[in-house]
Amino acid sequence: MKKSIMAVAAAVVAVASSSSASAADYLPVGPQTNISIGTVTGGGWSLCFSGTMATPFGNSAASTLANCSGDRLMLAGRATGSETLLVLAQALKVDALFNTGAGNNGVFHNANGSDWFNADSWSWGFKTPGSSYSKFQCDTSPPPEPSMCLHTFDFVGGYNINQISGLNGSTDYEKLVFQFDGGAVPEPATWLMLIAGFGLIGAAMRRKDRTLRVRYV
Q: In whole angstroms, what is the distance from residue 9 CA to residue 21 CA?
């Protein structure tokens, strides 16, 4: 009986571990390149903003992304319609939108392995820590790789995805923003297996208890 209970318990633990591993959150540290969009959407993220680099972004990232209600944001860029994100970075929303001020002042906000910069009517983006960068409004010298920069203006949406720059009027590339929807949740079938497993353990324990009571009466 003890071996049976142990076997069922081990099976339940194995199912739970497998579920957790297969539904792991995607929380990369620092800028990443050439990532499948399926890795992102399968890792707990949902798209909350998209537009070509030609689409005006608005003069305030915080206002434009007001519908991105998750506690984390991911900024990414890709060739329009591609399944591969050329570059991305993620951080807590308060860090990604931290106001570093306008002008070429060299101020960046380091969060989750990326240097973020943001200012209304100026620019929003990230770069690799330690790389040189001229914030006027985005680096044109050319920008370091990996990095990404958007103008925060009402009349333009570019500027660069890695070293692909001058994208102010480009419809060939897109800017995407994802929000993190939070932890991995087992699928319904997995929950049923877990419940069934715990039920078997409980039934086995009750049978063992009745056997002991009969033996000692």
A: 18
User: What is the CB-side half-sphere exposure of residue 114 using CA atoms within 13 A?
Assistant: 33
pLDDT tens, residue by residue, 122-180: 999 999 999 999 998 999 988 999 999 999 999 998 999 999 999 999 999 999 999 99
Query: CA Rg, the chain, in Å?
Result: 25
Residue 2: partners with Cβ closer than 8 Å, 6 or more residues away: none
Greatest alpha-carbon pair distance for the chain in Å reads 89
pTM attached to this predicted model: 0.76
Exposed/middle/buried for residue 42 (C-beta within 10 Å: 0-12, 13-18, 19+): middle
CB count within 10 Å of CB 39 equals 15
